Amino acid sequence: MKIIATDRKGAEHTIEGRDGWSVMEILRDARLPIAAECGGACACATCHVYVTDGWYEKLSPPSDAEVDMLDMALAVEPTSRLSCQISCAPEIDGIKVTIAPE
After folding, report:
1. Within 13 Å, how many C-alpha atoms sit on residue 49's CB side?
2. What's the predicted TM-score (pTM) here?
3. What is the separation, in whole angstroms, between the first and last Cα of the chain?
């Protein structure tokens, strides 16, 4: 499966995802500028991304813990998600995300 990620400078990267991995793990392993300070435990908001319209609706709704973390993030938008909470699966092949500002 593919993930299409736009970095903070506006450059687009097409990255190969791995089934069962989180989008955060894929972005981090591709050396994109995502801090992921908590390592994917949904305990920070340093993996904040914007999910492109059309893809956001295909994801399961955010958990209460994710909503609480997003409340502490900067520049939150209606399509904001924590990339550690998005699991790679065939259903999201081609998902487009933009890394949020720090």
Report:
1. 34
2. 0.94
3. 27
Domains and CATH numbers, the chain: 2-99 (3.10.20.30)
Tens digits of pLDDT across the chain (102 residues): 999 999 999 999 999 999 999 999 999 999 999 999 999 999 999 999 999 989 999 999 999 999 999 999 999 999 999 999 999 999 999 999 999 998
Contacts of 36 (CB under 8 A, 6+ apart): 24, 27, 28, 44, 46, 47, 83, 84
Q: Report CA torsion sign: 87, 90, 91, 96.
A: positive
